[in-house]
Amino acid sequence: MMASRFAPYAWSVLLHAVLVALLGVSLHAPAPRPQPVAAQAEPEPIQARAVDEAQVQAEVQRLRDETRRQQQQDEARRRQLQDEAQRAREMRQREEQRAAEVKRRAEEDQKQRVRAEQERKAQEAAEQKRLAEIRQAQAEAEKKRVAEERRAAELAAQRKQEEEARKKAAAEQELKNKMAEAQRQMEAEAQRRAQERARQNSTLIQRYKADIQNKVERNWLRPATARPGMTCTVLVQQLPTGDVVGVRITRGSGDAVFDRSVENAVHKASPLPPPPVPEIWEREIEFIFEAR
Description:
Layout: H1 2-27, H2 43-218, E1 231-238, E2 244-251, H3 256-269, E3 284-290
């Protein structure tokens, strides 16, 4: 490319160098010697110079033609190179465009593959989430079913326990009722017997107290202040043998002499008469002493 660009200048320099050389040869040629008149030798040098100039012109023309031809070739070569460069640029542009298109398509394909992969992963994640939700729902349903069955079993067991407890309570209540009825009957019978015995004992106690009072009256020294109908209540403490260990007037007659005479009579009456039956004996016995 650079050689073709500087080729016209090289030919021009070469042409000028040839012209300078030819002029130098002509200028340095030896001067013609003087010849005798008769010799007539002068026409030949003139012809030589004419020939040399013609040759120089021819050579110059040839060089010019050669330079022009070379220039034309160089120009043609330059145009050819420019065309080739243009074609190369166009081809390179087409290649670049093709490469850019291929790259764009590759990038687009890559983006599509990435989107497809993302969609696939998203679908897989959604499917896994759906399956997880289904499994969770199934687990919750199973858990709920187990809980309901357990609750039902617990309720059944509770109802059974309550029924058994009710039956047991009913049986116990029935037994209690029977026992209470039996106890009531026993208590009623015991009360009846106690009342009967109390009635009998009351009679015996009255007789027992009458016996004590009679013995006390037999040992009583009637004071001058005593009047018929005077009474005082006497509390006597005795031993099982009837020996008197204590006498106290719990309700006096209003006459201290009368009351002391009664106390003395009780002490003198010791030992007191035994009760008709042992069960009516009491350590402390209270009776009313009445003057007659």
